[in-house]
Every structure is written in structure tokens, then in C-alpha cells.
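Q: Sequence in, structure out?
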Amino acid sequence: MGMPGGTELLIIFGIIVLLFGAKKIPDLAKGIGKGIKNFKSEMKEVDETEVVSTDAPKKVETDTTTTASTEAPKTTTQA
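A: Exactly. Output:
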């Protein structure tokens, strides 16, 4: 089973016109277009929030007082 040919598409389109009427078809197409546009914009927002949340630097807390007291003083010898 392949794609429908030209004659088959015309018959399908004719049935759709009979079922919905010629005035409703543009409204249906407009509604489908808006739905697709909203879906794409929501997917883009989800991708942007994931990128922002993964790119945010993580704050690392260090205790500088214990590090300074446990290190031995460094000495240099001159020759």
C-alpha cells in the first residue's frame, strides 16, 4: 500500500467538503495551524529552560579558615 494517487486524493477531499462544508474547512485549518504553532513554542520554551538550568554555575562552599590553619608555611631557601 503506497501513497494515495491524485484521483483518490480528490475523492477524499470531496468527502471532507461534503461532511464539513466549504466554510468550515478554513476554520479547521486555522485551528490546526494555531495548535501546531503553540506546540512548537512550548517545546522551545522547555528546551530553553533546560539549557538555562544546566548552564547555571553551582555554588561551592569552602571553609577557608580550616584550610589556612592546617597548611604548613612555605619557606624558600636562597642559595
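The CA atoms of residues 17 and 23 lie 9 Å apart.
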